[in-house]
Amino acid sequence: QTTLRASHQWPGGQGDVRDEMVQILAREVAEADVGLEVQVYPGASLFGPKEQWGAIAQGRLDITALPLDYASGRHPEFSATLMPGLVRNHERAERLNDSRFMDMIKDVINEGGARVLADAWLAGAFASNERCITSPDSVEGQTMRAAGPAFDELLAAAGASIASMPSSEIYSAMQTGVLTGANTSSGSFVSYRIYEQVTCLTRPGENALWFMYEPILISERTWQRLNDEQREALMDAGQVAEEYFAAEAAGLDETLVDVFSENGVEVVGMSSEDYQAWLELAQQSSYQTFADNVPNGQELIDAALEVE
Amino acid sequence: MQPSKSSNGPATATPGGVAAAYIRLIDRLSVTTAVIAAGLLISGVVVVCQMIFVRYILNQSTVWQTEYTIYSITGAMMLGAPYVLLTKGHVAVTALPDFLGGRARVIMLTIGRLVGLGFCLALTYAAWYYVYEAWHLGWGTGTVWNPPLWIPIFPMAVAATLLCLQYIAEFLRGAP
Amino acid sequence: MDPLTSGLLVVIGLFVLMAIGTPIAFALGGISLIALVASRGLPELTYFGETFYESIAHFGFVAIPMFIMMGAAVASSPTGRDLYRALDVWLGRVPAGLAVSNIGACSIFAALSGSSPATCAAIGKMGIPEMRQRGYPDGVAAGCIAAGGTLGILIPPSVTMIVYGIATETSIGRLFMAGVFPGFMLAGLFIVWTIIACRISGGYGGSVKAGVNQVANNVRANLDAIRRVLPFLAVVLGILFTLYGGVATPSEAAGAGAFLCILLAIVIYRMWDRQRLQLIFRDTLRESVMIMLIIAAAEIFAFALSSLFITQTLAEAIATMEVNRWVLMGIINVFLLVAGFFLPPVAVIVMTAPILMPIILNAGFDPYWFAVILTINLEIGLITPPVGLNLFIINGIAPEISLRDILLGSLPYALCMVLAIIILCFFPGIATWLPTTMMG
Ligand code: NA
Ligand code: NA
């Protein structure tokens, strides 16, 4: 009996979709009965959120589910997985999973010492208590908190001020006027009760700027220790977890819209023209920086944009 | 029970010759890193105030301040450690050795010091390995500012090394 | 090896290392590293650097040295003396007046500093010699300062509340608020016992006979003293205001507080000579490095316990116990009390919070109320052997007072704290009312 340790940063056993994904993986592997057990450490109870990638690469941790962008200090290519406008919507995210873009990202993951068991793209939204965020003009003069360097740069290019802070501080920052707008995942918007502080929500619908890749990874060193039967069981379990997530992902966005409108927040969507305007701005800001700093940066962006 | 007596500076007699010169050198190095640590601490306070000013008064972007403060304060805490060892400020429970007295006390405290030295040696190896990895592989911190990672973690490696050297100086000084 | 056996081995190993006089930080770090390498192999050693660095590289922890700096700036200025004089004039004529002033001064200084040993040292340096000179028994003199000093971590700002907030992801501003009334209540209990103790030991600290002239002078000196202390208190109130209003994060408030207090020390007390400023930074560095290294080591220890699945096994064992929630609270209190005897407060919090938090929430206790209970438990540990940080401080300030007198003098104050915990169990509102009212 081999025991694998799985770590993630989200609360355990409280219905968080990402926790549930890992729990499903653990259950499926146990049911396969191949002498393999997955022990889940939720809520960053083993490794800190930003230590997980290193631990996977070093073989100290077997399995993790994490925002891949957290490792972009070590592999700058990973910034592409939290790059404004590259994904657009859930249907396109699924097509992206089988594209050249993801092949390139997964090559970097493999070189870094890990392997993908399940893909997951999480959508996010914008919210503001000043005015609805749709076109690039609408953020001008607002103070925004954005998740990730690429978004910081894009918003700054659109004329917003950026304040860096963890998502747990968005609420009080909006309450006191330090922030007028924020940008984070659908789930965080609901769990931090941001609806109490904003007047307008830009829902992730057909045109969502904000998508983040949060795969389940297994350490390559662990993988090499397993037999074929165990590998197959893990891959199958990963598939089940991935399908579960795909079904739930859109539901997260629906919950977001429901909760915010129930609390009297205006909910708007981004039009195709708005979306194109953001993409053009990104070409001159975050895409440009990414292409300059990452060896195959331009190629990655082109590969993502060429997906139908 | 005898830690953190507010005695400052090394106690007890010092041996002569090479050992004395070594002790003087290491003591001076520990004081120097403590001064650097104090400088980092002050810079952290100043940068926090600057961040408050820029964010709340000027309403402008604050991109690097949070990160800088974390690195400067963490660096200061590491670099201050050898000085705290030098001035006997690390809390220890010496009730049992003190109660037993005599040879038992000397043996116990010596083993205790060896454990401390052992931990510091392990940390020295690990810290330098981390710095080497970060430097060799060109890791950044993965933020907008994205400074090279080896810079903020470098103080840890220096501090761990100096802790080992300071422990050796304490042995040379004798008197547990 | 099953988790509970390995857990037992780790704890025994820790005790042995601590008992032979290894500094606590290195004992914690050393035993954890041994356990990690033994159970998971050499990579745990090779990659230990990242684990160690990440254990304290956190924006929340930045507040700790800054609140300590704030206290050090106030402590090295003559604020303590001023406070003390002011209180003495008011209270000098009541029974046990001077000892009562000392506890009052400790409470006010606690509001200026995040640390208990610092509070104890700042007031004790003046208070103990003065009390002995006026004929107070050694036990009362040492005891009221040792106990009064523990208020440093209950009355905000508080280093341990910051650590608790980070470990449990609770609001630090709210935690600070929760400590305010329990802090004053505890100070009140200390005062009551001090008056009783002075009576018992023969009516020490009777009223000071003062001439009319002297009183007039005193009043003038008093007003002068208050004028000089007020700006510091204004800074503290400002900090609390920004924190509960959510205007600034604790680290921002701490940075501004440290900056302003140093500025005030320079302006009001004209401390611009290099030596005295150096003293502030040296004291800050010594204390904060000592605390942060213990936090780092305790984090490593917690990581080792989690890595060996000890934390999870223990938490599950406790969670499945079918006991009344107050029995559970009693058990937790005894556990914390014992842990506090041997370990400094920050270490206890880092090591036990991951185990205790889910249990507390499951049993329906308020996490902010529990933070206060936890803090008072750890305050007891500060004045009990073998690791009583405040006892060490008193011993350093007044080496001529025997250890026996210090211990016997402090013990009744520990009982006051137990009483405070019991009162809080019956009236949780004392802790929860202020944060609920102010922050909703
Ligand atoms: Na305090
Ligand atoms: Na104790």
UniProtKB/TrEMBL annotation, chain B:
Q: Which ranges does the record mark as transmembrane?
A: 34-56, 68-86, 106-129, 149-169
Q: How does it sit in the membrane?
A: Multi-pass membrane protein
InterPro entries named in the record:
DctQ, TRAP_DctQ
> Mainly resides where?
membrane
Cell location:
Cell inner membrane
Q: Which residues form the Tripartite ATP-independent periplasmic transporters DctQ component domain?
A: 45-174
For this UniProt record, the keywords arranged alphabetically read as follows: Cell inner membrane, Cell membrane, Membrane, Transmembrane, Transmembrane helix, Transport
- What's one Pfam family here? DctQ
Q: Which residues form a coiled coil?
A: none
Function as written in the Swiss-Prot or TrEMBL entry = Part of the tripartite ATP-independent periplasmic (TRAP) transport system.
- Which proteins does it associate with, and in what oligomeric form? The complex comprises the extracytoplasmic solute receptor protein and the two transmembrane proteins.
The UniProt similarity line reads: Belongs to the TRAP transporter small permease family.
Q: What name is this protein filed under?
A: TRAP transporter small permease protein
Automatic annotation (TrEMBL), chain C:
Where is this gene product found?
Cell inner membrane
Which positions, given as ranges, span the membrane?
A: 7-36, 56-75, 140-166, 172-196, 229-247, 253-269, 289-310, 330-356, 368-398, 410-434
**Residue ranges of the TRAP C4-dicarboxylate transport system permease DctM subunit domain?**
11-430
Membrane topology, from the record: Multi-pass membrane protein
Coiled-coil region: none
One family from Pfam that matches here is DctM
Protein keywords: Cell inner membrane, Cell membrane, Membrane, Transmembrane, Transmembrane helix, Transport
Subunit structure, as described in the record: The complex comprises the extracytoplasmic solute receptor protein and the two transmembrane proteins.
Q: Which family does it belong to?
A: Belongs to the TRAP transporter large permease family.
What job does this protein perform?
Part of the tripartite ATP-independent periplasmic (TRAP) transport system.
Output this protein's name: TRAP transporter large permease protein
What is the organism of origin for this protein? Answer: Spiribacter pallidus
